[in-house]
């Protein structure tokens, strides 16, 4: 009986540890969101997330913009409707530090 209780407690502890791991991974990416490009005007752009909410961003001076092949490009090179991943500055979600075009699955 003692071994059954001990086994159950160890199993429950392991389950808690493994279930908590994905939450930590999500916290690391809280400054990153995915959606589609709606419009670009100079260094400002609007994107729409997966649930349809629009986000306005301004590109940081040292921001990285990558096309779907992972090559450097300009924000204006990205097409409206293109799937993008935007990383924002910690503490300021209006400033984009990285914009990546995402390849569509064939």
Instruction: Report the strand count.
Output: 5
CATH class of the largest domain: Mainly Beta
Quickly give the CATH architecture of the largest domain: Beta Barrel
Largest sheet, strands/sense/barrel: 5 strands, mixed, barrel
The structure class reads alpha+beta
Number of helices: 1
Give the low-confidence spans.
21-27
Overall geometry: elongated
* Beta-strand residue fraction: 35-45%
Order of helices and strands: HEEEEE
How many structural domains?
2
The radius of gyration is 20 Å
Q: How are the strands of the largest sheet arranged? A: 1-2-3-5-4
* CATH topological fold name of the largest domain: OB fold (Dihydrolipoamide Acetyltransferase, E2P)
Can you offer a commentary on this structure?
This protein has two domains: 1-30; 32-101, Nucleic acid-binding proteins (OB fold (Dihydrolipoamide Acetyltransferase, E2P)). Helices cover 25% and strands 43% of the residues. It has one helix at residues 2-28; strands at residues 32-41, 44-49, 54-66, 83-89, 92-101. The chain has a five-stranded mixed barrel. A hairpin with a 2-residue loop joins β4 and β5. The radius of gyration is 20 Å and the shape is elongated. It starts with a helix and ends in a 5-residue tail after the last strand.
């Amino acid at each position: 009986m003692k071994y059954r209780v001990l086994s159950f407690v160890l199993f429950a502890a392991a389950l808690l540890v493994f279930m908590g791991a994905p939450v930590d991974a999500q916290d690391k990416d809280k400054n990153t969101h995915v959606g589609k490009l709606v419009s670009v005007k100079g260094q400002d752009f609007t994107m729409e997330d997966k649930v349809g909410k629009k986000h306005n961003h301004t590109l940081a001076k040292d921001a990285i913009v990558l096309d779907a092949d992972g090559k450097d490009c300009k924000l204006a090179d990205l097409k409206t409707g293109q799937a993008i991943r935007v990383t924002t500055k910690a503490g300021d979600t209006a400033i984009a530090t990285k914009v990546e075009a995402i390849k569509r699955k064939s």
